[in-house]
Amino acid sequence: MNSSSLHFAVPITVPTILASAILLPLSLLFSRGIYHLYFSPLSSIPGPWYAAVSDLWIIVHTLRCRKVRAIDDLFKVYGPVVRIAPTTVAFLDPDYEQQTTRMVYTALKLDKGPIYNAVQMNGHLHSYTVDSQYRVAIIEHNVHAKYKRIFSSHYSPGNIALLHPDMKVSAELLIQKIMEAKGQPVDIFHGMHLVMIDLILKSTFGHDQGALEAWSENSHDIIMSAIEDFALLILIQGIVPNWLFSVVRRFPNKRWQSFCSSGDTLFDTMADFVREQQNEKDAGRLDERDKSTLIERLFAHNDSCAPKDRLSFKDMTSESTTHLLAGVDASAVAVSYILWRFANQPLHIKQQIQAELDNAIPDAGVLPDWKTLHNLPILDALFKEGLRLHGPIPTFLERLAPRGEPLNLLGYQLPPALIFENPEEFDISRWLDDTNELQDAMSQAWAPYGLGTRICIGQHLARGAMKTVLAALLRNFDVLPCPETNDKTMNMMELFRTFGHDQCVLEAH
Q1: Cβ neighbours of 13 (radius 10 Å)
Q2: Dist CA 471 CA 12 (whole Å)
Q3: Spatial CA neighbour of 68 closest among 332, 393, 298, 482
Q4: Residue 385's Cα: distance from chain center in Å?
Q5: Domains, the chain, ranges and CATH?
Q6: To which protein family does this belong (predicted)?
Q7: With contact defined as beta carbons under 8 Å apart, do 259 and 229 qualify?
Q8: For residue range 204-254, what is the model confidence (pLDDT) as tens digits?
């Protein structure tokens, strides 16, 4: 009897192929979700299940520019440590002394998270060639420390005092431009952009851009337009894979092409300034200046350091671009928000601020020196409260966990601390109460410029410029809110800029 065997074959059909193409990725996603939910080293950290299995939740809120608010809602439900993505944890330091915050941002010196890789540009440097994308933001701590040593003196309080005359000139010119509006609504957000563009280019290159001088209803500043576009481009590049973005950026629309090349526009513009300054240096004309610029400090570093430590043309251009991007939008957002809040304060609060400014500035047209403005307590309280409640660049300062040993990040049983009473209210008096035992804790928790060794190096420049402009505007005008500006239009959005404009009516005293 002959033995026989049975063979079964599954016919390969188009539906079978399609089903396999769908089921296989779904199976992989399901398996990945199960792993992250139950077997990942982070599975014991509290948080919603959908955040643990997929990045989709956080991506949606990022696109809506509401990630900060969404995570704040999770803190209220799950406590001070919460899992917001399969491999990402957020924490809210409940300690008055902010010990965990200082550990993460100071003691451990952790590298920045991958979101900072989104700040990329492709330079077109004429005789210089950049073969691939490169980062404007510095991720690695040791690399950042090297650059910080080179130019930290440029942003010291003493050097900012030397730059303050330029701030006063810009503030006085802004007053003049508002006067020319003859009581019509003025877009302070736009105007402050131009103030900061002029100041940063002046302190970086000694270049007089004249952006504020040229400001009119129909004026267009290429640097400002590129900065506005690039802020939104960063958001997109931080979410969309590089291969996909390289495809969609080729869409043949003139406005879209301009938007996608905004980073290149900024980099190339700054490259022209660096090249111009190099020519000035070669001709021996930089020594004629009365105060050093940032680019001069970079040149001086190259002249004195070992060859291996010298900055390339690309390095200097990239660093200059970073300083411009960091200072323009953030300061414009902060001043706009503070003015809007001031315009909606009770009369007695306005009178309290005005009385301090009237006393410090007897002649409304002559602003005092930086030391006088810096030591005005009520103006400082207005400034602090504005930045406390509405961070100019509201986002999480992501850091990578250290290699090797695990990171012990708080305990889950700790109750939340109440450092700021009624934290959602704008109340400058919280900074003026010397009897409040939480003053030190409040000062430690106030971190609009970041913390630790990676704190914003230009904070003194930004603080000086903003306070000078605020003092000038509040001393010379009555600030009234426009009907179109309200809580919704001024709501904080997580982005490297804000979409809303702060239109206030400013009337001369």
Answers
A1: 9
A2: 77
A3: 393
A4: 18
A5: 29-92 (no CATH), 109-508 (1.10.630.10)
A6: Belongs to the cytochrome P450 family.
A7: yes
A8: 999 999 999 999 877 778 899 998 898 888 878 777 788 888 888 889 999
